[in-house]
Amino acid sequence: MKFKPLSIALSLLLVGCTLASTQSTPTPTLAPTQTLGKPGVSITSAPDAQSAAQTFLQAWKDEDYPKMYGLLTSISQDAITEADFEKRYRDVAVNMTLATINYQVLSSHRPL
């Protein structure tokens, strides 16, 4: 008599497991996505380092700090505000007792 309730419970458990495993679960459908176009390929030449250096130094000689700041890369501009940049270059000029700037770019290197 002890085995009859146990066997009924096991039978119900097995039937429940069998029914649960045979029922299908709905598969979510994904909306189709738009296909991507062909990638655009463009070549950007590196700026002329000698020309950039001359422009920067001439702007410093003319005390044109906004122009100097504009020649910085966006990463460098993110690192320092225009006001702090100008203050730094003015402080350098004062600390060096800079009266005039004369420059000559002797060489430059352009990476391949």
Could you walk me through the main structural features you see in this protein, from its secondary elements to its overall organization?
By secondary structure, the protein is an all-alpha fold. It has a domain of 40 residues. Helix content is 53%, strand content 0%. It has 5 helices and no strands. The longest helix has 20 residues. The radius of gyration is 37 Å and the shape is elongated. The mean pLDDT is 81.
Brief account:
This protein has 112 residues and is mostly helical. It contains 5 helices and no strands.
Helix content: 40-55%
Provide the low-confidence segments as ranges.
none
Question: How does the helix and strand content classify structurally?
Answer: mainly alpha
Reading the helices and strands in chain order gives HHHHH
Alpha-carbon Rg, integer: 37 Å
Please indicate the percent range of residues in DSSP E strands (runs of 2 or more).
Answer: under 5%
Major sheet description: none
Shape: elongated
* End-to-end distance: 91 Å
> What's the total count of β strands?
0
User: How many DSSP H or I helices?
Assistant: 5
Report mean pLDDT, rounded to a whole number: 81
